[in-house]
Amino acid sequence: MSPEPSAPFSDRLLSLSDGRPGLRGSISVEASSPGDENSRPVLDFRSSDETLDRYGEVITASGWRLETYKRNPVFQNSHQYGDIIFTLGRALTTEVRAGKLYQRIEFATDANPMARIAYNLYKGKFLQAVSVGFIPLRWEDGTPKSEYTRKYLEQELLEVSAVAIPANPNALALGLKSGAVEKSDLRDLANLLRLALEPPLGSPAHAPGHLQLLRQLHTILRS
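The chain above was modelled as a monomer; its predicted structure follows.
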């Protein structure tokens, strides 16, 4: 079954990175450091099996259509595309392997303190999920006997995002306490955000997200 996405998803549709309406959902991941990257800030993400999500839905791994995402394979923070501050890195590899969506992400740790923080939080297992934005192309509804309410059979991947900084301040605080995150990285990020909020560099459309993160950082640095 493949009607227009707006029909069964009207209460969940969001504007994705290219302006088209689609869905977003979290996928739990196993992050590991590859052994062949010469100490570069690279992590392999292997998504969970085709398990039920919080909507009682299943995304079929073989149904991923990756061509659009591969044209601009950025790895963002919290699906925020309006500012380069939120670009954490890029996907070197995006493919389906053995029933899982696999990615190798290179984090922009030299250019962005937020990317350094995200890299260390994932590496230290303080963050264990990513969020994907996709256009459903083909799906089937569940029956009273099936365990799912809907199964996606084909879907176009548009976005992959970290989940989530600053939506998970506990991860930041625990990462700092464990030594996985350096206090200097938090200070560098706070300073970068202050610059972004100052005119003429600041943008009113994006200031709320910047300000939210800055407040989270101040709270953690004072604790």
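Helices lie at 6-9, 67-71, 113-123, 169-178, 183-197, 207-222.
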